[in-house]
Known about the structure:
Elements: E1 2-5, H1 20-32, E2 37-41, H2 54-69, E3 73-77, H3 81-89, E4 94-97, H4 103-109, E5 112-116, H5 134-152, E6 157-160, H6 169-177, H7 179-183, E7 190-192, H8 197-210, H9 223-235, E8 240-242, H10 246-260
Parallel strand pairs: 1-2, 2-3, 3-4, 4-5, 5-6, 7-8
Helix pairs in contact: 1-2, 2-3, 4-5, 9-10
The chain binds 6-hydroxymethylpterin-diphosphate (HH2).
Amino acid sequence: MGVLNVTxxxxxxxxxxxxxxxxxxxxxxxxxxxxxxxxxxGESTRPGxxxxxxxxxxxxxxxxxxxxxxxGSVSIDTRHAEVARAAVGAGAVVINDVAASLGxxxxxxxxxxxxxxxxxxxxxxxxAPHYDDVVGEVLDFVVERxxxxxxxxxxxxxxxxxxxxxxxxxxxxxxxxxxxxxxxxGFPVLVGLSRKRTMGDLTLASDRRVDPHAAPVxxxxxxxxxxxxATWAMTQGVSMVRAHDVRAHVHAAAVVxxxxxxxxxxxxx
Length: 269
Ligand code: HH2
């Protein structure tokens, strides 16, 4: 799943694709690089993000969804029912729902749905995240939502632990370590780890073992760490990886798939 944020303030690609033509060109590039689906979002949900009024979100995403839906499968990354409804009208086939509250709408519209876990709201979710049992609580939440959506008639439901959404780095790492418990539910699992802060934390700690004054590792310098995390997740059995650097992740997926099920993958003699 390629990430396409049509926003001025997303944490790693904010402002890069604000003009619809630029966004569509980037989406096309991600399809060409092997993305199965492009995830279009018009509101940043990074920690501390200011909410965007739905009419502005719609203005950003609709022309982009409409154009990309002509090329391939598009998901709409939104928390707002009216945005999801209009995006599906424009051709989106999946609602990527970071608040996991639009399952019934997905059933009504006959589209796929991602149930992601978020503790609280983006503006405040990183203030003091607390869980007694982070894996158990996140798992119970997404499974309960996924089962309800399935009962409501959604035929394609993914569950997503929501890395970085009201979670400390330790919470994220425990969730990553225990991804197999999500896979064991039988629901396909989606993970979004690409360029996130935990990648920066781990790589900075590694750099500082060599140089105590090493500078923090910014979002666009987190490709290798993101790939390592995505590769781990794929070996645990996740079904979809949400990523900014599509070609690199598709290559990683090809190597994981080839290692799990060896077969000839090139035409070379
Ligand atoms: N992460 C982000 C946004 N949407 N959706 C799912 N299902 N899972 C995720 O982990 C996820 C998501 C945040 O990343 P990004 O879109 O790059 O940034 P921003 O929220 O700043 O636009």
